[in-house]
Amino acid sequence: MNRFLKQAVFPGMLILLFLSLSCDKTVDLNNPFDPIVALYPPQNFHMISATETSIILTWVRSNMELNEEQKKMTSIVIEKSTDGTNYLVVDSLDVFASCDTIVKVFIADQTYYFRAYTKVGLKKSSGSDIVQYKISPYAPSHFQVVTANDTLRKLSWTDNSSSEMAFRIEREFGTDGTYDLLAEIPANTTIFRDTTVILTDVTYYYRICAEFSEGLQSPYDSLEICISFPSPSIVLNGGTDPKFVSLQWSSNFLYPVGSAIERSDDSLLFFAIGTAGPGVSAFSDSTINYTRTYYYRIRNFSSHNISPYSEVFKAYYDTTINYWY
Q1: Could you say which of 128, 132, 141, 305 is the most buried, measured as most Cβ atoms within 10 Å of its Cβ?
Q2: Alpha-carbon Rg of the chain, whole angstroms?
Q3: 37-48 mean pLDDT
């Protein structure tokens, strides 16, 4: 009888035990050993855009069956690494989030790795796909000449970076390809004035790059400048007064230079009769005799350079009509 009782009672106890275990109970989300629904990482994790100071990441939220209590404890965690192995948490967002902007100054030429996972309480999913981002140094652009003469070159450029330490400006003349450091300009600067004296009719090459921390620098942007000293173009102003020869000319320069005026009685031997200051392009010669023919020539000059002469201009007074030609 005892044998039959044991056989009847034991299956019943198993049924009761199974029913007890299968009853609905509250899941302890903070207990890593407590059973819970399967967790999935964010899907289609990728980068939308990036600059040297921020990166925008987006993803599709995994379709997990979570109750209201679980949703409150669920988050999307973003991690960053610089070696692809060791990750640190950089942000944690609501479970319904699908986009995140990470604001950080990224070092040029350094590769960054990003990944995401879903976390509920102490439990977390596996990692998402890895997003790699390597920022190239942002070079200045539109490097150009604003003003150019033999004692001043005003250069400008567009600053495309927000984390440079300085700008490096170098200059070369000739064709040997050797650049010398001209100046290091503070960050966020877009103008430089080169006031060193240069030779005219020689091509000078300038280049600029942005310097970053850890000795990194951007590619160069380059330009070339050749400051020439062209001859002036002289004309006679005419007039009826026999006491004056009025000369006018164009310096043919983009910036003001001085002019030296010379005169000859035979078109062979010339001597100086005066100068005109920068920006002046007219001269009246009163040391003449209207019955004679004169020859004039002019050349431009600056503090350090001088141009070739203009063409020789002949002036004589026509007494039949009382006019200078």
Answers
A1: 128
A2: 42
A3: 87
Using CA atoms, how far residue 113 sits from 47, 60, 88, 118, in Å, is 11, 19, 10, 17
Nearest CA to 279 out of 144, 146, 149, 154 is that of 149
* Alpha helices (runs of H) in 23-91, residue ranges in sequence order: 68-72
Residue whose structure tokens are 């944690």: 92
Q: What is the pLDDT of residues 210-229, one digit of tens each?
A: 998 767 788 899 999 888 78
What would the two tokens of residue 263 be?
Answer: 């005169």
Question: Residue 82's domain spans which residues?
Answer: 43-134
Range among 155-159, 193-197, 223-227, 231-235 with highest mean pLDDT value: 155-159
DSSP state at residue 269? S
Specify whether the CB–CB gap between 199 and 174 falls below 8 A: no
Q: What is the CATH number of the domain that holds 150?
A: 2.60.40.10
Instruction: Enter the pTM of the model.
Output: 0.52
